[in-house]
Design a protein that fits this description.
mainly alpha, transmembrane, membrane
Amino acid sequence: MQGIIRYALSKSNLSTEIDTYQEIGNGFIRNAFFPWVFLLFFTLNRNNWKRTVNLVLIIHWILRSCGDIIFAFIPLRPYVEGHYWPFSTDNWYKSCALGNVFWLSGEIIADWYPLLRTKAVTNNNKRKIKYVYITCISYNIIKIINIYCYYVGYPIDLRQYDENGNAVKDFAMFKLRWW
């Protein structure tokens, strides 16, 4: 629903700067994981905040929320005419790519949650847990490569058209490499 409202406002002449500041200020509360973290700590584990599993959940929530907040700064940044969303290469690296680093870092931390739970259930059987470690590490390596795509991969040109009027396809190629 919020996406529909944001789209309608982008097509109108209304200023959304106040909404942007509200989205930035409420970044930790608007995160989809906030109700789970709130429920877990204030009702179920009131006295066990220092358990490793709980710390993994807190760090995951904080990193994902920071990524949301960084990404929410895009509407406040200057618009560059003739560029694809997010409007300029500067915005791309300072908002999208940096927000993505925080999101993926939070996901990498969160991937260790099932590992810790599996380790607790299997009674430390090293043969069984080895496959869970291999899966988790390989999956997280893919996420690190995903971060690599933003910064170290090919430089991206976000202009819609070059000087000759030809369409620039760097954004489409980035999306292809991403997926």
